[in-house]
TrEMBL record:
It holds the Pfam family Actin. This is Actin-related protein 8. Belongs to the actin family. Actins are highly conserved proteins that are involved in various types of cell motility and are ubiquitously expressed in all eukaryotic cells. InterPro entries: Actin, ATPase_NBD. Transmembrane segments: none annotated. The lineage of its organism: Eukaryota, Metazoa, Spiralia, Lophotrochozoa, Platyhelminthes.
């Protein structure tokens, strides 16, 4: 027996890497135990074990040898001896297990596809590559229309919002700066001279060496080139609205493939040796996640896939268990509450406002009428030129730093100097417009810079574009219920269970229907008792007043970011408390205060940990936004309790908004910790599983509520 085993098993260890050897050993060990007990047929068992751990035997001779072992064991020959042999010689040692973990970490890629940036990198490598998530394809015929602008949003002029909100008074009270409506730049204050003339080819990009498509920064340079069409596959956190899904998936495949080959140095032929962690948005569309998984597993050919939400990954990176995560990106802002690593679907909302809207508002505030010099033509920023957009971004960053420095200086003044007029922030700015470079100085008020940063989040409908073309007045989207988003490749999903449960109740009727289907779970996770149960005498709980945690209706519109955060926190508190009470069945009145207390405690913890992440919350703009959000949420909290149930000041939960100077990669870095989780090995999706089961694997293996 030992000669047979040495001759047929040992050669595997000479051919394969540590990972494949570990898979082989696991296969052999599990197979020996199962077959020795006679639980499987010989050929079916071999296929089951090989398919279960996604390991394929390389040669026909090896398959024949393995089948011979199956026959020996399934026939009852040397069963116990083979089990002992595998347990002693073939089981992976601690050193091999550690080597396997290191190898798995080195061969793991983390991909976070955003609307404006693609963050991609190795799990064990340096910080991720932050690349523009765009592609420019060569056209067979020169196009006549212009490409879409690189900056979206509606133009806002200074003071347009004054009569609608109290933003000016908020800025005056929070930052102690004087404000007026004279921030519009006068033409006499702009000093500009033309210093250079150059050809348009400088701004259209060099197309001599460009192939059928270019990506990242090179694609931005071709935004105004009539021979190319530049597109963004993802906008506002979802696939580009109105685009063909086949073209979007092809764009994503080409962009990601170039990033892996050129930026990370991984050949496409080696993709099958790597695993990938996909970080998706907090509010997702299930069919889009299914398409992304198909691109990674089928088109690019990665061996394993792990999918998780960005907000939960951000809490891993922060080391907190409960938080309200506000992710401010370039084109969208998402709000999501997380409690113990779980994000209830009813608490997620995405708004079509971001850093791009701040940039557009700043442009309208600083140069509402563009630049004119004497009898020369009117010139202004061209949003289809990457050079103009980059120059505008640089100008905004410099203005924010100068304004933050001046605010700090004002805060150090003594009381007798408090009447000092607000200083201006004269900015020396170099702008490239078309075929000329202009140098000019623009005086900006500190309050105007803060105004441009807060207005998009204070009055969303004033600056944002609709999130979908077919809903022109809607600027947000909430997480859709699984009952409303059934996937065609997952026939036994929640919708199927819901429908079949009702049919069984109709056919059964009477007392026979009261069985395992008595309690049914709906899409929101609430448990509802069957109506055919006999009525029992119970004491009904007193109705909750507004001071208690109660479900808030899904809003048809969010006027501001604080309203969205407030709605999400209260939704999370009610949902979690409802789930905890439903576990005990029908709630009687003595238990109502217990449920209410748990909901109140969760609300307190969420208000204490509102976290701002994303590129739009870094630097001075993030600090201003955090200070303003703290004030707004505190006002909402105070008004709620003062009107309905006055409380002592000491009993009011504090509001704390946390921000960072540079934590735009927090979710990506938090995804690194997924590999260290004890249960992560059960959540990887293999190629064979995806090909066979499709979206069912996401529903069963995803670590979030699918």
């Amino acid at each position: 027996m030992e000669d047979f085993l040495d001759a047929n098993v040992t050669p595997y260890s000479l051919r394969f890497s540590g990972r494949d050897l570990w898979r082989l050993k696991s296969t052999a060990m599990n197979g020996a135990f199962e077959l020795a007990l006679g639980l499987n047929e010989e050929l079916d068992a071999l296929k089951l074990f090989v398919d279960h751990i996604n390991f394929r035997l390389p040669e026909n001779g090896d398959i024949q040898a393995s089948e011979e072992m199956v026959r020996l064991v399934s026939g009852g020959q040397f069963g116990a001896e083979m089990v002992s042999y595998f347990a002693f010689y073939v089981a992976p040692t601690e050193l091999e297990t550690e080597q396997l973990r290191i190898e798995a970490a080195e061969n793991t890629i983390i991909v976070e596809p955003g609307s404006y940036y693609l963050k991609i990198g190795r799990l064990c490598g340096p910080p991720p590559k932050k690349l523009h998530h765009c592609i420019a394809r060569r056209l067979s015929v020169k196009r006549k229309t212009e490409n879409a602008p690189l900056i979206t949003g509606r133009k806002v002029t200074f003071g347009e919002e004054v009569t609608k909100t109290s933003l000016w008074s908020d800025i005056r009270g929070l930052f102690s700066v004087a404000l007026d409506n004279g921030a519009s730049v006068d033409e006499t204050d702009i000093h500009s001279i033309s210093v250079e003339h150059s050809g348009q080819s400088k701004f259209m990009g060099n197309t001599d060496d460009a192939g059928e498509f270019v990506v990242f920064d090179d694609a931005l340079l071709l935004a105004s080139n009539p021979h190319y069409r530049m597109t963004w596959p993802i906008a506002n956190g979802f696939f580009r609205d109105g685009a063909n899904y086949s073209s979007v998936l092809q764009d994503l495949e080409d962009i990601w493939c170039v990033a892996l080959e050129k930026q990370l140095g991984i050949n496409r032929s080696d993709f099958s040796s790597y695993r990938v962690i996909l970080v998706i948005g907090d509010v997702f569309r299930r069919h889009e996640v299914r398409y992304l998984a198909d691109v990674l597993l089928q088109r690019l050919g990665f061996s394993h896939l792990f999918v998780h939400q960005s907000a939960v990954c951000a809490t891993y990176g922060l080391g907190v268990t409960t938080a309200c995560v506000v992710d401010i990106g370039e084109l969208k802002t998402s709000v999501c509450c997380v409690d113990n690593g779980i994000s209830p679907p009813d608490t997620r909302v995405v708004l079509s406002v971001g850093r791009n809207n701040v940039l557009r508002t700043f442009h309208g505030v600083s140069l509402p009428n563009g630049i004119t010099k004497g009898n020369e033509d009117y010139v202004d920023f061209d949003y289809t030129l990457a050079s103009d957009v980059n120059a505008l971004r640089t100008w905004l960053t410099d203005a924010e730093r100068s304004a933050h420095s001046l605010i700090f200086q004002l805060s150090q003044l003594e009381k007798q100097d408090a009447q000092l007029m607000e200083p201006t922030t004269d900015q020396r700015f170099e702008l490239t417009l078309g075929n000329a470079e202009l140098h000019f100085t623009v005086p900006l008020r500190v309050g105007a810079v803060i105004y441009a940063n807060l207005l998009p989040f204070r009055q969303i409908s004033l600056t944002a574009d609709p999130i979908r073309l077919d809903r022109p007045s809607i600027y947000h989207e909430c997480q859709m219920s699984p009952l409303d988003a059934s996937q065609p490749d997952d026939p036994f999903d929640d919708l199927y269970i819901n429908m079949t449960t009702r049919e069984r109740r109709k056919r059964g009727g009477g007392q026979g229907a009261i069985s395992a289907d008595t309690v049914a779970t709906d899409a929101t996770g609430d448990v509802r008792m069957d109506r055919s149960e006999p009525d029992v005498a119970e004491v009904q709980p007193t109705p909750m007043n507004d001071t208690q945690i109660s479900p808030q209706a899904r809003s048809t519109a969010f006027e501001s970011l604080p309203n969205a955060i407030w709605w999400s926190i209260y939704q999370c508190a009610f949902t979690v408390s409802a789930q905890s009470t439903s576990e005990t069945g029908t709630l009687a009145y003595p238990m109502a205060p217990v449920s209410q207390a748990s909901a109140e405690e969760l609300r307190r913890r969420l208000l204490r940990c509102v976290v701002l992440i994303g590129g739009g919350s870094c630097g001075p703009s993030g600090r201003w936004l955090a200070k303003w959000l703290t004030s707004e949420l505190s006002s909402l909290l105070a008004s709620t309790f003062s009107i309905n149930a006055p409380m002592e000041d000491g009993n009011r939960p504090p509001v704390e908004v946390v921000t960072f100077d540079d934590q735009s990669d927090l979710a990506w870095c938090g995804a690194r910790l997924l590999l260290t989780a004890d249960s992560s090995s059960d959540m990887w999706i293999t190629q064979s599983e995806w090909k066979k089961y499709g979206s069912r694997t996401l529903r069963e293996k995803a670590p979030f509520l699918w």
